[in-house]
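Example record

The entry below shows one chain as it appears in the dataset: sequence first, then structure tokens.
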Amino acid sequence: MPNSKRVLSVIMGGGRGTRLFPLTKERCKPAVPLAGKYRLVDIPISNCINSGYNRIFLLTQFLTASLHRHIQKSFHFDPFSGGFVDILSAEQTEKSNAWYEGTADAVRRNIVHFNSHRHEIILILSGDQLYRMDFDKIVQQHLETKADVTIAAIPFAASKVEGLGLMRVADDLTITEFVEKPKDPAIINGLAMSDTLEARLGTNKTGEKRCLASMGIYVFSRDVLARALDNTMKDFGKEVIPSLLGKAKLCSYVFEGYWEDIGTVRAFFEANLALAQPLPPFNFFDRNAPIYTHARYLPASKINHCDIDHVVIGDGCIVTDSKLRHCLIGIRSILGENSDLQDVVMMGADYYQTEEEVAADRKAGRPTFGVGRNCRIRRTIIDKNARIGDNVTLSPEGKADGEYPHDIVIRDGVLCVCKGGVIPSGFTL
């Protein structure tokens, strides 16, 4: 049987995303816009499709409306392929009326739906990471090593593993120890890779000992997953994986490509701006492994008399007489004359305003969608459908994290204009 017929993919899309607030104020993490035209959830779904795995479940819970709309508009399969992206939201049943209480709990409560489809292997993925991986390689290793569970791992310098699950891996790639988010330096250093593993992975550019960190990507044999979840454990990293040590064969699949866990505002901001580099760490231009998203049929962007350097501009934008430095400009963005943006992620708009709506806004003294004239904006995320008037200055420099007037939040040293926020003309922060 080909691997594509053996595997069901499950994408976790349910967390509150508190560390990404205010970007998650009105949406769940996987629905957060990315790279000018995508959503975070497009990454794992595209990786699945490009790997030949087109039977995909998406488990959702908090603020799911925009995520559901995006999935329904974006991913359609012909009736002969057997492919689907099926949304499974938390639901009340005879056994439980509670929300999902963790990643393991979410999978446990949906096994009944998975069992309606023929499969031998469950591939469990996060919905908020930026990476490109051929999942068929990790599944093939899982089968060849006769593992019960295979965990994707990425080498990290020991000084940069804060907040990650670490594993001790033998030279044959079996996992002998797993510690979720350790903080004690002695424990972290004790989990460093052996010299044999280091040599196998090639050049270590960090110059220091490295650990293998969990990517939150798990391959479970079907019967092993059922037994592992026949309890009340709530989380894979904290409980289920450690409980299987010594009871099942756990192996590591070492991934050496680019991977970014977009769990904080700073990580989101930096990952997006990195795409404006001449050679970005993540390549959206790979024709052999495209990233799929909603086909919006937008016109090409219009750039009039602008000074632009290291900028990514999405479809359907109108930018006039502006200066842009190191920016990412999302779909349907409109920028007025003589505005100056540097280190800005602008998510754009969900729709264009009509002439009547624009006239009504101007009559009421209300800014229209986008950025007005003569604005100076630095180190800022401008969320969808925001309205910024003329002569506005925004920068987080010298200001503490916290909430400010007009739907502005500074988080991780990045200024955020919330979705639908209205910044009046002449405002300075």
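Notes for this example: The chain has a mean pLDDT of 91. The chain has twelve helices and 27 strands.
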